[in-house]
Amino acid sequence: MAKQPMLKFVKIDRDMPEKRSAEQRRQDFHEIYAEYADKKAKEQASRCSQCGVPYCQSHCPLHNNIPDWLRLTAEGRLEEAFEISQATNTFPEICGRICPQDRLCEGNCVIEQSGHGTVTIGAVEKYITDTAWENGWVEPAAPAVERTESVGIIGAGPGGLAAADMLRRAGVQVTVYDRYDRAGGLLTYGIPGFKLEKDVVMRRVDQLEQGGVKFVQNCDVTAEKFNEIRGKHDAIIIATGVYKSRDLQMPGSGLPGIEKAIDFLTASNRKSFGDAVEEFDSGRLNAEGKRVVVIGGGDTAMDCVRTSIRQGAESVKCLYRRDRVNMPGSQREVQNAEEEGVVFEWLSAPKGFTGDDRVSGVMVQKMRLGQPDATGRQMPEVIEGADYVEEADLVIKALGFEPEDLPTLFGQPELPVTRWGTVKAAFQTGATEMEGVYAIGDIVRGASLVVWAIRDGRDCAAAIIDRFNTAAAGMAAE
């Protein structure tokens, strides 16, 4: 009888890949976790309980078949594990690195609930796909039949790229239009290298190009350009993401030295590519030697504080108006940031900024948590008389993102939007009320996770292919 390769959680403890020391991590922008060795990946995968109702799978936006590829990994059948992983996820090596597994698959692992420690799903997923790249198992699109239909995609972020991949594999002609000089969107310019090294993104972009996806970079989509793109293609997908930073309107908020998170992170990532970045070289978007205060508690704030540490800041503090338990960012990221030297000031919110020619401090008001709001979260309340000034040479606002005014930017007043400015699109298909126009990802959902953008891109591509097939069948029947 074959030896049971699974259900070893009662004998084997959870063990993440080795993490580089905090002192080492502070010196560079390389990823902080090492790869699993083959034996360790098999061992950790074997801890899966293969439960009848896999909550890890149901809580994954892509509904990845996690139990199956864990079992295949435990059995040493890595190429098959990769094929199962790739079947539902266009970019598993990216999700394995940046998904908040502690809130999704791992956070809902059955053996975690029983006190044995969750299966290290994200780390195994990363190991499977990195092994697939090393062995040449990851292949560009090679459709059996080329189709005449074409799709234009506005935005080269994860949603747009996922849709492009699926459409090309079906033989559809695809062109991606993007405002930046490199594809990838926030994967390229928003997420720091210590979470997602840029060669991981660039090799996927190269693979898409090898598979026949055309990229038009440095392309600002004006009203004229939108009409031109729409006229060229049988369908278009709006996948722009949300890039408009939320702002603070309070005394001193216009002082030099108060910067947007997206500008700060983009400058840092451009430097990692070796680009000349005037705003960084001048010191404006460079934390070196400065007392840095980051305002916000989401994953973007975590990216900013950890980037500041690596740039050589004198000190880095993070202000968040709620407590640690209620912050929206990953708890794993908070732990990593604390190890690296970031100080968190919980229950603290800005009320203004001090300084004459440039910012010199943040006026902070201390908070306490009061009654829950409509969402069930406790609302912060000001503690009177507990204000103080936090000295700062650089303040970074990481308050989240809002959609740009696309109907105006694209010159399409009929493009339907919600009261929040997001594009109205049908659930699952992404279809808008405009004929042949689809929308996916954050521009529909609001600021969300990369994995949701991938899901939307795949769903939308499937809907467009189905539409093309239906139209072709109708023409053939005539």
Automatic annotation (TrEMBL):
UniProt entry tagged with the keyword Nucleus: no
FAD/NAD(P)-binding domain sequence ranges: 151-457
Keywords: 4Fe-4S, Iron, Iron-sulfur, Metal-binding, Oxidoreductase
Pfam families to which the protein is assigned, alphabetical: Fer4_20, Pyr_redox_2
Stored Gene3D superfamilies: Alpha-helical ferredoxin (1.10.1060.10), FAD/NAD(P)-binding domain (3.50.50.60), NAD(P)-binding Rossmann-like Domain (3.40.50.720)
Chain ranges of the Dihydroprymidine dehydrogenase domain: 25-136
InterPro entries cross-referenced by the UniProt entry: DPD_II, FAD/NAD-bd_sf, FAD/NAD-binding_dom, GltD-like, Helical_ferredxn
Descriptive protein name: NAD(P)-dependent oxidoreductase
Lineage: Bacteria, Pseudomonadati, Pseudomonadota, Alphaproteobacteria, Rhodobacterales
